[in-house]
Amino acid sequence: MGDDCLFCKIAGGETDTDFLMETDDVVVFRDINPIAPVHLLLVPKRHIRSVNDLTEEDSPVLSALLFAARDMAVQMGVDATGYKLIFNVEKGGGQEIFHLHMHMIGGWES
Ligand code: AMP
Ligand code: ZN
Question: Which ligand is nearest to the CA of 36?
Fold first, then answer.
């Protein structure tokens, strides 16, 4: 956790990444390699490796991620048209950065 983790650095404000939202628990920024017109990453500030590593004490962080998704959908104008929320879990699930994050993808023409 921390030193070698890109998303810890981003969430800690150590990079020039622009946040679309920041709360006590979560930051939201655009994916650098978007696969859809809207492709955001919703990232807890706390270092958690993946969904596999969640514990009961992470419950508030999970709530914060979903509420951030709800609000970002409105902000990005995709709440009505729809979007996907995806967690990639471990290598076989496509996870490349081992700091928990949720993808929000959407904005396709409907
Ligand atoms: P995953 O495959 O679920 O681990 O997703 C990691 C995502 O992080 C990929 O979609 C990358 O495009 C994205 N990514 C990697 N580095 C950055 C960065 N510096 N800023 C924003 N997104 C990034
Ligand atoms: Zn981290």
Answer: 1
